[in-house]
Amino acid sequence: MKNNKSEQIMTLNGNWKFNAIYGEGSNYNNIKAGSTDVIVDNLNANQIKVKGKWTTTNVEERGSGFYKDNYLKHFYKDNTDKSSVTYTPNLPASGYYEAFVRFPFASNVNTKVNIQHANGIDTQYFNQRNRCDEWLSLGIFTFEKDKENSVEITSDVYGVSVSADAVLFRPVSKEKIIKAEKEKKTVYLNNYDDTDWYNLKVPGHYGMINDFSNYTGKAWYRKTFTTPDKWTLDKNEKIRLKFDGVYHIAKVYLNGKFIGEHQGGFTPFEIDVTKNIELNKPNVLAVETNNNALVGATWNWGGIIRDVTLVKNNDVRITHNYIHADPDLEKGTASLELKIRIENSGAVDKVLDFKTNIYRDKQLQEITKKVTVKANSTKELVLKSSLKAKDVKLWHFDRPYLYKMQHTLLDNGIKVHTVNDRFGIRKIELTNKSLILNGEAVRLAGYNRVSDHRYWGSSEPQEIINTDVDLMKNAGANFMRIMHGTQNRKLIERCDEEGILLFEEVNVRDLDNSEFTAPNYPLIKSWVKEMVERDSNSPSIIGWSVGNELTGHNTYATMMMNYVREIDAHRLVTCVSNTGARKEANPNTDPNTNTDLIMHNHYSFQGTAQSVISTLRSKWPNKAIFLSEYGVDRLKSTSLDEDLPKASDLNDNLRGKNEFVIGASLWTYNDYRSGYIGTSEEENRTWGIVNAWRQKRRFYTRMQKENSPVKDIKVSFNKTKVAIVIPIKERNNYPSFTMVNYDLVWNLKDANGKIISSETKKLPVLQPEDAVWEGQIKLPKSINKAVVMHIALVSSNGYTRFEKTIALQKPEKPTVTSIVAGKNKTRVYFNTVVAAEEYFISYKNSKGETVKTEPTIANFIEVKDLQLPVIKANLIAVNSLGESLPQSVELKNNTKSLPPVVWQTFIRDNHIIVGYSGELNDESYTVRYGVSKDKLLHKITTYTRGMMTIPIKKLDTYFIQIKRKDKNGDSNWSPVITVKNNL
Questions:
Q1: What are the backbone angles phi and psi of residue 737, rounded to the nearest 5°?
Q2: Residue 229 pLDDT more than 90?
Q3: Which residues contact 430 (CB under 8 A, 6 or more apart)?
Q4: In this structure, are residues 293 and 264 in contact, taking their beta carbons and an 8 Å threshold?
Q5: Rounded CA gap, 243 and 237, in Å?
């Protein structure tokens, strides 16, 4: 609980009870056709009715499978097309059935499914690019044997293809339905027994429980709490319940009463609970959540994904504060404009004193005003002030200075509400060819970071946010369109603190979404307002976007951008597009005309980057362009050895030309979970410079160099000194900006990885016009003991801008830690050595030919296509000076397959978290574990791909092994892995 004189806050985070009611959702991983199921396939000609011209095909599209021999496909050309496929089952008896639909890939993201049952027709919409070739639940219905029952596949939208494949009807016992119906009527009541429910952490998500790893549907949370002993409530006070995010629909009950709901998974909402809460007595809070909304290729992480708090304060309060700090770059001063919204929800008019105190290292000024707020109304104050030059420090991505402000309302001298916030002072200007930050034209690089982690999902605790910001900054991120969707407030705050310029975007990716109501789109407007008002004081946010890759959106985008400008008149506004370069797009029909800058998503299917850039510039010659996504290619696998040289080729379009392209943001920083077609076997989209567990790929190193303001750090050794040459990227290069208060940092390491010498050299201001910096560093006597030298260019706030590791000796011989044999494969694990850059295995095959594996940066090598039962081989480490001595190893063959690769293990929230690889035909995964390496007495099996959680009763060091099962049986066990409790 947090207290101040005017407000008391109680957190409701932590353990909640969690479960789902039978029939209100489904985990498609667990749905396998059984003997009592009734399936209607396209081959059952007498049970399907086809309207319109559908094509029968047995050709997979985008690698998507289909049921049995073939499926049907149709392209909906325009609104006159009423084509459909209707499946009618021959049911053995009347009763309850759960209906499922199955489809391969099609381009429609809103395929319409009509279920005709005994009680009428239900309509649902499905994204046919997602969860392809799986049995997807439509729900439980009553079907009468002798009446017409059917599932119809059709579409309300056009210019898209639809697939129709098969439907399944599963009998459901009447007893289960009776129990479920009773639960629905009682689950939110105080006396409902939730003893046997799961424990689930808030913030969190369904997938933290293995049984709900792929669950889509409704699920319930319950928490019993008692307000603090000191809480009392007088007539001028209220208690409000605040949720920072519930995905995607929330219905909230307190002490058995429905108190409110919210639709939209990424924005905050609050509910007045003054009349429903019991002070100093147990209260029961129940929340029905629904994650049915699948948007794009990202995962629908369901549940209470952000903080929950109970706030007690006065019925007179500050509900919104906004500051615009505008620096005068010539004078060094800054003007301040504040807008404060004050709410009086009481029955009496109030005459109040308002004051704002501005702080940096100390209080700089106080602004005061008297205000009258009528009963049951709101009042907006506008206040203006300025800061003297001596008190102004500009916010910059290398020097992110922050100011604090405290707003206070007083009633007859008594504090009734206090709000604390932060802001930065920086000047953003935009011309037709430049982004100007604090008077300097800069070209900047960044990433799209998907709010996703394989354990934390989109709930993202501070530790993963800090990790991600550090990794992105060290890989050159200064300016980003962070992704499509309102972000965790903690991420925005971290970007304020560490220095990343951001465009934040409302979660709108398809205007045909059945949630949205044209032409005014009230739901989207509420999301926009909630996002902008929450984040409008963050200096990291320099602009807003009202959607991603929409079609037919000129009217929508223009209206919504104007709406944003009404809320925040001082930031840039855009709509991220991929249509502006199309032949049919023109300034009269495309919303790029009404944006402040063009933000375009570029992928290779659109043509070359240069052709797209040139086309956009020819249509809108007076607008700067930001490549808000550039997706070079999806990586071929989850391997850490993946790299994309094409990323360097794309940046050639920006080096020394196309200066009106002010920056670019790679898709993506991180791999992310997805049910989208073409996703890896462990359900991760492999686009990232880091994998889903934040391990660096070769691609990371490439992008770190690409996004540096310097071209290289050249090092030349002589007897006692090292000459350093740093060529600086020119002003028209990419990226380019002035470097102030940078350091050159270097160290020497011995063969054990111990730093035996380190030094730092302050550098002068380095401008793009300087072309090069040259200097020397003195070598210490310990150089003779060193095996590597690491040298880095480090920003004023401690982030690496370029780094290089120089081998001083050949690497030592690596040590093998374990060998796992498989069918025609062997996986060799080893300890990495300090001076090595990569590793390979060399051996002679059955023909006597010398074979070398592809080099790796990982700590294991998989040798494939082995024909002999045992092969003698050598493991070798490599750096620029040559190869290590060989470490001999035996490659063995056996009849079982290899186990999953374990990417990461750790302990959080009384669970062991295990991240692992997958294979296409995997059916299940088993872990055995224990607190003794020799006694792995416990087992857990799950269908979950890519990640499982194992509940533990005590925090300790654990040992685990994992195996997988497919149609051929069990794999071998992995090596024993130690999992330490390092918190």
A1: -170, 165
A2: no
A3: 436, 572, 596, 597, 624
A4: no
A5: 20
